[in-house]
């Protein structure tokens, strides 16, 4: 193995998407899966993750930015791609590459219409309504006007409304009353859209948590991010049948015996140096809180996390230079999960995996 690497199990990504597809393709809804590959596939690699997700049964891909969406197209991926963070300067490239665009207000709609007219192409859009998230989408009061404008543009063959969508604020808390309120608001928004002659191909509200814990939110399409990579969207309910796809590991660079004093442990100890630091995405808050596994045993991080390394206390254990230290993985061999690191450092598991920097090589494996 490389001295340091993030090993990505593409078979796990396939299996996780298959799990999502099975959960959402109910007789009542037959919802499809959009695999969100933003942030370079949540740190797992944009293109390998996208291809594995499609192999697992995803029929759509979601990418936050137009640059990410275009990278998918440039790689020959022809599946529908939806993007929601764009500027007017992005529109010609996006429309020309058949990228679906989120539209949440009249200014955005005008910009899309102008770009489509200039290109002589039909733009594909998804109208976003704010059902309670509060910072994204058309407000309920403005929704009828946006529908009017979109219906007119569609009649004039400038664009086609492919989707109507919204975002849940509390899906990771399935019992939260806001979920029902947002679901009702989304139904109302769809009713108003139909009154304006807009009957979208796809209606999408659910994220990973909604896909696995709120079946009433499935509609035609679910947007799955964390679950694709095996990160439970509702951690207090366990893994939900998902398998973490990333294992972060490195070789012990040095083992040093130190006496009592003001150092990393303040007492006589044996310390192992692991060559990963905050430049690689290791949170400084991990000091004294997180642990790593070496030969199946857990060892705590001692002292501050440096830019290039941290140390673990291996006192009394037969640890040697070159031994493999596993920071997190699927947990099969006693190693921590990304969720364990998140809990130890006061963040979320998605930040842990997405934050692993470009200095860490990615390697890929499958079970095939």
UniProtKB/TrEMBL annotation:
Pathway: Amino-acid biosynthesis; D-alanine biosynthesis; D-alanine from L-alanine: step 1/1. It comes from Rugosimonospora africana. Belongs to the alanine racemase family. InterPro entries: Ala_racemase (IPR000821), Ala_racemase/Decarboxylase_C (IPR009006), Ala_racemase_C (IPR011079), Ala_racemase_N (IPR001608), PLP-binding_barrel (IPR029066). NCBIfam families: alr. Its cofactor is pyridoxal 5'-phosphate. The gene is alr_2. SUPFAM superfamilies: Alanine racemase C-terminal domain-like (SSF50621), PLP-binding barrel (SSF51419). GO terms for molecular function: alanine racemase activity; pyridoxal phosphate binding. It catalyses: L-alanine = D-alanine. It comes from the Bacteria. Catalyzes the interconversion of L-alanine and D-alanine. May also act on other amino acids. Keywords: Isomerase, Pyridoxal phosphate. This is Alanine racemase. Its EC number is 5.1.1.1.
